[in-house]
Amino acid sequence: MAIAQPQTTDSFPADSRPSESALALGTETIRIEHLRFPPGEGYFHAKAAHTLFVNLTSRPIHYLQRQDGKIHTGLYRHGDMLITPANTPLFVRWEGNENCLQIQLPASFLQRVAEETLGKDGDRLTLVPTFQSRNRQLDAIANLVMVEAQQHQPGGALYLDSLANMLAVQLLRHHGTSLAQLPSYAGGLPTYQLHQVLDYIDAGLAEEIKLSDLAGLLGMSPFHFGRMFKQSIGISPHQYVIQQRIERAKHLLKDSDQAIIDIALDCGFTSHSHLSKQFRKVMGMTPRNFRSQKS
Fold first, then answer.
1. pTM, whole model, 2 decimals?
2. Residue 15, exposed/middle/buried by CB under 10 A (0-12, 13-18, 19+)?
3. pLDDT at residue 23, as a whole number
């Protein structure tokens, strides 16, 4: 897999740097980069983050990879993955033009997920270095991450954090140093807890809403909170927040003379265009056209 510019100690040769069109996106729980490289080789060493590399080339590409004292050579197909745990030096040589999605999760975040979600000792449970792996669940999450990186939606931290939690759990379940089973939860949130969360969202629509903040209200892990919230109302926290912001925007468009940019900001959107894009997706028309229908 391609070797990305480091935040701290990662490194790669100058002639293997990503193109200017590479995408980068991140929150406190996840860092995403879409990388394109000419043929080359390089070293990678992320001391404090676990890294998942996903091959995106349309045709197989040959790699030589070395990590954790092991060497692997082979043709990576579209969707093949390389997992490099934190503080694991990696060397890669690739032939042909490469197209790669790099996803990093902080080691401290993965440790917290192991403890809160899987009930494991986070100091002992980590990831196993893995060459050329395929997993349908990880692939599905990586595809969602890729779409989000391409669209680069403003205010998408809640969604990205949800994806980060899903990814962390699946990595620990399938590539952890010890077997991790996901606890079973059924029935959704109790009514009083659901109302507590919905009231919090309603009061904070104009601000950034984090998954960890919603889960923290109930003393739950973000992953379990997301699953139980969806069981309760049928959609994810991210989808619900967008829905409520659109509903508030509809009300203000019909019942006030506020400028659309002000309505966008009051409803938690980052710009007029951000509101328009989400509004058109849900309502099939722009905010301006919706307002013009006011009786």
1. 0.75
2. exposed
3. 61
